[in-house]
């Protein structure tokens, strides 16, 4: 993994700006605790913080390629390329010579061979910057699914860039401004491609190359989802899914540091864990370690709610026994979830007040505990988006609602609780319904279609596309920020673009051939999992049910609402917020008060200027 940063300016000598460039790089220390480097030329500064995973001794960055006339290209790279061994062999056959075993050098040599077309050759999760010293051009490249983040901020004579906004904000040229468009995006619960929320900041779109030169900034998509005829029958489709998963997990087990699996007891994580365990045993490498999160007293006092019908832990333990993995429960209590230092760390990791309270804090604490044992973890994230696992995929009313289905589902209605807080004038200005409608129409206009496709099949292709391009990014961002805040690399096998492309084009009737959600995935893993997990209904990431958490949350909000100097008062109706804080706990009140506390801390800590 790693963190990257940099600065290109065609009108100044950046060798005189080393201190600022170093400050930008230092903000990425959490993403790369093992090493750091900074390369500077007159018009480019390229920084790197390293989390060493492959070739611990040889993969230092920024990595520089040299030719007959000196330095030719400089790479700062974050992520993993899982087909680097095949690419290395191909590039060697083309005359390239390698000094290290790292996938970083493979990416650098791939650039020298294929230029900006290199990304089409890569299988993996990555975000990287290449400075071509010959042409004085910068390439910013992001993986197809957007697993790894990459932001940029155009300046009058160049650009600032970094893995996270904090790297860019460390440069005085970057303004910390939230305008009306940023506020809308912040509260919409929809991830708009390229939107950076801070005014003037952009995110490289998944599957995109951004080129920066003296002529300006150009953008090109090197990958997007296409509509293709699906010729395989159910049996062949299940076999293909299983074959892909076998190959994907095998590739993602490669690591020179300790590796583990994240296990929730659901179908997705259980299948990844069981596959990893089987593959490691076959290679004579022992068993895989697994970790899960739990809350003190959660299983014993569990109460079913709108989204969770069963607790995770019994299923976690059953899978651990069945797959013979070395499992550890990470048990948290409410005092840890409400620890001010933990909540500050979560906001610092996010750079934005977009968290979901205890679910962010618990994920951060889970990853922090895991980092004491492992540096790499496999996750079941994104299977629901790929295979159609969320309940609203199967809710006709939500599917046909004429908006993003997750916004129409009762299961996620609590997220709208944050809107309860807005002052009336701010709510009118934000016009979140209009903003979401506009983003929805934009997304639908992108959907690829097959000739003659109609009815429910056509609509479910649209729903799948919305999730793979607008919803999954929310969860991938969260997992990346919480894991990299403690220097843990999380790999997501279900985001392999080969699997995504294949399953996207499977007809919906075949994806639900047994009348259940994720029919293909269940069939593909039937030989590896106990029946209880194969039949378990989708249960999202757990949230604490401890009443003391809600009491503490309401209490902290009430304390804040006694402070007239809070910058959040410019956005929040103080009287309405007091009513919510004084009222009974509910999913909507929890969402609203979590957002209130985050907004206050963010506006103060990041010194954000409101330009509404």
UniProtKB/TrEMBL annotation:
The keyword Ligase does not apply. It is an enzyme of class 6 (ligase). Its EC number is 6.3.5.4. CDD domains: Asn_synthase_B_C, AsnB. Residues 2-215 form the Glutamine amidotransferase type-2 domain. GO terms for cellular component: cytosol. Keywords: Amino-acid biosynthesis, Asparagine biosynthesis, ATP-binding, Glutamine amidotransferase, Nucleotide-binding. The keyword Nucleotide-binding applies. Pfam families: Asn_synthase, GATase_7. This is asparagine synthase (glutamine-hydrolyzing). It comes from [Actinomadura] parvosata subsp. kistnae. The lineage of its organism: Bacteria, Bacillati, Actinomycetota, Actinomycetes, Streptosporangiales.
């Amino acid at each position: 993994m790693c963190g990257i940063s940099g600065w290109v300016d065609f009108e100044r000598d950046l060798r005189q700006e080393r201190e600022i460039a170093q400050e930008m790089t230092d903000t990425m220390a959490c993403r790369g605790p093992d090493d750091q480097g900074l390369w500077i030329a007159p018009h480019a500064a390229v920084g790197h913080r390293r989390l060493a995973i492959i070739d611990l001794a040889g993969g230092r960055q920024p990595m520089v390629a040299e030719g007959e006339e000196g330095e030719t290209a400089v790479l700062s790279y974050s992520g993993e390329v899982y087909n680097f061994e095949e690419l290395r062999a191909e590039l060697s056959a083309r005359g390239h010579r390698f000094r290290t075993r790292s996938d970083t050098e493979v990416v650098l040599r791939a650039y020298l061979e294929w230029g900006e077309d290199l990304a089409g050759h890569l299988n993996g999760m990555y975000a990287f910057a290449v400075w071509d010293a010959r042409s004085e051009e910068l390439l910013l490249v992001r993986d197809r699914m957007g697993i790894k983040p990459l932001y940029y901020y155009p300046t009058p004579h160049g650009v600032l860039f970094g893995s996270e906004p904090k790297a860019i904000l460390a440069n005085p040229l970057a303004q910390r401004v939230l305008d009306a468009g940023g506020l809308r995006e912040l509260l919409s619960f929809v991830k708009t491609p390229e939107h950076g929320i801070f005014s003037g900041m952009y995110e490289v779109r998944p599957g995109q190359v951004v080129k920066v030169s003296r002529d300006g900034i150009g953008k090109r998509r090197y990958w997007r989802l296409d509509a293709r005829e699906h010729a395989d029958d159910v049996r062949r489709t299940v076999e293909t899914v299983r074959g892909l998963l076998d190959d994907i997990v095998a590739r993602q087990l490669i690591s020179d540091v300790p590796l583990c699996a994240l296990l929730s007891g659901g179908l997705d994580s259980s299948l990844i864990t069981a596959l990893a365990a089987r593959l490691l045993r076959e290679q004579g490498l022992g068993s895989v370690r697994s970790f899960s999160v739990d809350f003190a007293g959660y299983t014993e006092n569990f109460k079913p709610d709108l989204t969770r019908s069963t607790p995770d832990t019994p299923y976690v333990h059953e899978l651990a026994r069945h797959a013979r993995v070395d499992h550890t429960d990470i048990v948290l209590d409410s005092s840890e979830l409400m620890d001010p230092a933990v909540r500050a760390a979560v906001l610092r990791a996010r750079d934005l007040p977009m968290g979901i309270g205890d679910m962010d804090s618990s994920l951060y604490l889970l990853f922090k505990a895991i980092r004491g044992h492992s540096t790499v973890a496999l996750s079941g994230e994104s299977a629901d988006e790929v295979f159609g696992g969320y309940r609203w995929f199967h809710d006709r009313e939500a599917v046909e609602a004429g908006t993003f289905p997750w916004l129409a589902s009762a299961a996620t209605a609590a997220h709208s609780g944050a809107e309860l807080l807005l002052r009336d004038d701010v709510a009118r200005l934000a016009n979140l319904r209009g903003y979401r409608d506009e983003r929805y129409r934009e997304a639908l206009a992108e959907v690829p279609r097959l000739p003659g496709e109609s009815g429910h099949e056509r609509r479910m292709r649209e729903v799948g596309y919305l999730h793979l391009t607008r919803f999954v990014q929310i969860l991938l961002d969260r997992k990346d920020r919480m894991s990299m805040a403690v220097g843990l690399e999380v790999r997501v096998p279900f985001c392999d673009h080969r699997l995504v492309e294949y399953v996207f084009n499977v007809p919906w009737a075949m994806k639900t051939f047994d009348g259940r959600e994720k029919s293909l995935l269940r069939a593909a893993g039937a030989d590896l999992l106990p029946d209880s997990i194969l039949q378990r209904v989708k249960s999202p990431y757990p949230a604490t049910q401890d009443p003391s958490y809600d009491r503490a949350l309401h209490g902290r909000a009430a304390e804040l609402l006694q402070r007239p100097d809070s910058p959040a008062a410019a956005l929040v109706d103080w009287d309405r917020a007091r009513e919510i804080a004084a009222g009974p706990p509910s999913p909507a009140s929890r969402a609203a008060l979590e957002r209130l506390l985050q907004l206050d801390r963010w506006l103060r800590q990041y010194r954000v200027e409101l330009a509404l």
